[in-house]
Amino acid sequence: MTDTDIRAAIAAERRDLAAVLADLPEPDWDAPTLCAGWRVREVVAHMTMPFRYSVPRVVLGLVRAGGNFNRMADRSARRDAASLTSAELLAALADNVDHPWKPPGGGFAGALSHDVIHGLDITVALGVDRRVPAERIRVVLGGLAASRSYFGVDLDGTRLVADDLDWTFGDGAEIHAHAQDLLLLVCGRRLPPGRLHGERAARFSAAR
Question: Which helix (H) or strand (E) holds 158?
C-alpha cells in the first residue's frame, strides 16, 4: 500500500472506531480493556494524545517522566481520562480522522498499527463484534513481522495461523485464530478464552 492508501485506511479506521464509541453506554467508558490498568477512557485518551498535545508539551512530559515514554504516556492517559468527558474524548478522535500524526520512526504504517491495536484493545475486551478489514490487518501484521517487534512475547516453537486470511508466522505448535486476535497475541495481550485454538492457546489466553 502507498502512503496515500495507508492514510485513507487510518482515516477509515478512526471513523469506524468513533462510530463504535458513539454507541457505547456511558458505563462502558469505565470498563477495563486489554491494556492492563486502562479503561476505555484511558485508551481513547492515549490514542488522541498526539492530536491534543504540542511537541513542547510531549517533551516536557518526557522530562518529568525521566525520559521514560511509557511512564509519560501512562501519566498523560490517566490525567486526561480524569479531566475529559467521554464526549470530549470521542470528539478528539472523530474530529481528527485525517490528522497526519506519525509515531517517530514508524511512518503512516505505524500510525495505522497504533489505531488498529488500541481499537481492538477496546472492542475485544467489551465483546463488540467488530472485524477490522483484512487489508488493514495485513499492513499491521506485516510491519510487526518485518521489524520483529513482538512486545516481549516468546513465540519460539509456535506457529501462528490465521483462519480468515492467508497469513502464517513461525514454526512449531500451531495456534489458529482470526488474524486480528493473532495480532493481539503478538502484541502481548491476553485474549479472552475461546478466541485462540491449539495446544499452546492457553499460554496466551486470559484465565477463565
Answer: strand 158-162
Domain enclosing residue 156, as ranges: 138-204
One-letter amino acid at 74 equals D
Domain final residue pick, 114, 130, 146: 130
Number of structural domains (the chain) is 2
> What does pTM read for this prediction?
0.94
One domain for residues 120 and 190: no
Same domain membership, residue 174 and residue 104: no
The verdict on 20 and 92 lying in the same domain is yes
- Is 170 found in the same domain as 79? no
pLDDT digits (tens, 9 = 90+) for 148-192: 555 678 888 999 999 999 999 989 999 999 999 999 999 999 999
Q: Are 41 and 89 in contact (CB under 8 A)?
A: yes
Cell representation of residue 86: 467521554
Q: How far apart are CA 17 and CA 12, in angstroms?
A: 9
Cβ(132)–Cβ(120) below 8 Å: yes
47 neighbors 93 (Cβ within 8 angstroms): yes
| Closest to 134 (Cα-Cα) out of 177, 106, 164, 170 | 164
- pLDDT one-digit tens code per residue, 79-122: 999 999 999 999 999 999 999 999 988 899 999 999 999 999 99
Whether the CB-CB separation of 141 and 165 falls below 8 Å is answered with no
Give the strands of the sheet with 158-162, arranged side by side: 168-170, 158-162, 173-177
